[in-house]
Every structure is written in C-alpha cells, then in structure tokens.
Amino acid sequence: MGQNLGSALRAAWESDEGQQLRRELSTGLSALERSLRSAAADLSAGETGQRLKGEVEDFGQRVRSGQVESQLRSDLLSALRAVNTELTKAGRRATPPEGSA
C-alpha cells in the first residue's frame, strides 16, 4: 500500500498538471514577495513607519537600560499582591468562625 501511494504521489507530482501547479505557485509566491517588499518599503518611508521605528528604538533603549525590567517587576509585584489580597478574602469567607460548629 505504501509503495502504491508513493507511486501515485510521484506520478501526480511529475504530471503536466503537477508541473503547472508548481509554476503557478512559484509565480504567485514571487508576486506576493514583491508586494510585501513594496508595502514594507512604503511603510518604512512613511510617517507611520518612521514613528513606529522611533518607538521600537525607544523601547530597545528602555530594555537595555533596565527600565522595562524594573517596570515589569513592579507591575508583577502589584498584581501578585492583589491576587494575594483576594485569596485571603476568599479564604476568610470559606472558613467558618471558630466555635460555630
């Protein structure tokens, strides 16, 4: 069965239709590549692209300086404290008062 399947796939790949399909795919992918390159060039030359580039450079500088790491730690600590507070409240509500059994 495996040999038959392999032979069928090989025949389909080597057929005229298979070769035509590969040519069409190649042509389509080349056109897509040209279109994407053109869009990327337009974006990088435009005002939005320049602003985005500046923001990325600024973010990179903040990462290198440790500012992003510091802010992430601070935000994570705040979030963990809030979760802890809520868990403590939930634990108090779930635990019956002493002597009420």
Note the run of SSEs as H and E. Answer: HHHH
Task: Tell me the structural class.
Answer: mainly alpha
Relative strand content: under 5%
Tell me the domain tally: 2
> Helicity, in percent?
over 70%
Shape: flat
On the 0-100 scale, what is the average pLDDT?
87
Number of helices: 4
- List low-pLDDT spans: none
Number of strands: 0
Radius of gyration: 30 Å
Separation, N- and C-terminal Cα atoms: 72 Å
Q: What composes the largest sheet?
A: none
Written description of the protein model:
The protein has helices spanning 2-14, 16-45, 47-65, 67-94. It has four helices and no strands. It has two domains: 1-45; 52-92. Helix 2 crosses helix 3. The chain is mainly α.
Please describe the topology of this protein.
Elements lengths: L1 H13 L1 H30 L1 H19 L1 H28 L7
Keyword list:
4 helices; 2 domains; mainly alpha; 101 residues
